[in-house]
Specification:
Pfam families: OsmC. By secondary structure, the protein is of the alpha+beta class. It has a 3-stranded antiparallel β-sheet with strand order 1-2-3, with no helix packed on it. Strands 4-5-6 form a 3-stranded mixed β-sheet, with helices on one face. Strand 4 and strand 5 form a beta hairpin. The radius of gyration is 17 Å and the shape is globular.
Length: 140
């Protein structure tokens, strides 16, 4: 299977990139002397891709396990190298689950299946970074 995207410069430091889904995203970066941003940073989008990939896995597995009535979010933090080209050398993914009487074993299993087996983006990150994961269960 192949994915193909097209990214077009739209002026200044902005690029618009399409996606096989037909959706587009604007990317840009900080420009010295300006506080205006129109898009997302390419490096930060990598972290969002990691969260999205793993999150889709986790929700899918929990649905199959009949786990309901929970809220779920992920915090992903990447540490960049000091030297150019700057890339993430360490990435930490914190999985947060909120609810009442959450089934900790099912949540742990769903996250671990994503981390160890299903998430291709996480596997790509492992090629260049140390990836750490933590699961936080917040029962109310």
């Amino acid at each position: 299977m192949k994915n193909k995207i097209t990214t077009e410069w739209v002026g200044g430091m902005q690029f618009e990139s399409d996606n096989p889904s037909g959706k587009t995203v604007i990317m840009d970066t900080d420009v010295e002397g300006s506080t205006v941003r129109y898009g997302l940073s390419p490096k930060a989008m990598m972290l969002s891709s990691l969260a999205g990939c793993s999150g889709l896995d986790v929700v899918s597995v929990l649905e199959k396990m009949k786990v309901e009535d929970y809220k779920f979010k992920m915090d992903v933090e990447g540490e960049l190298t000091d030297e150019h080209p700057k890339y993430y050398h360490t990435v930490t993914v914190d999985y947060h689950f909120y609810g009442k009487d959450l089934n900790e074993s099912k949540i742990n299993k769903a996250v671990n299946l994503s981390v160890d087996k299903y998430c291709g983006v996480m596997e790509m990150f492992r090629k260049f970074a140390t990836v750490k994961t933590n699961i936080h269960i917040h029962n109310s």
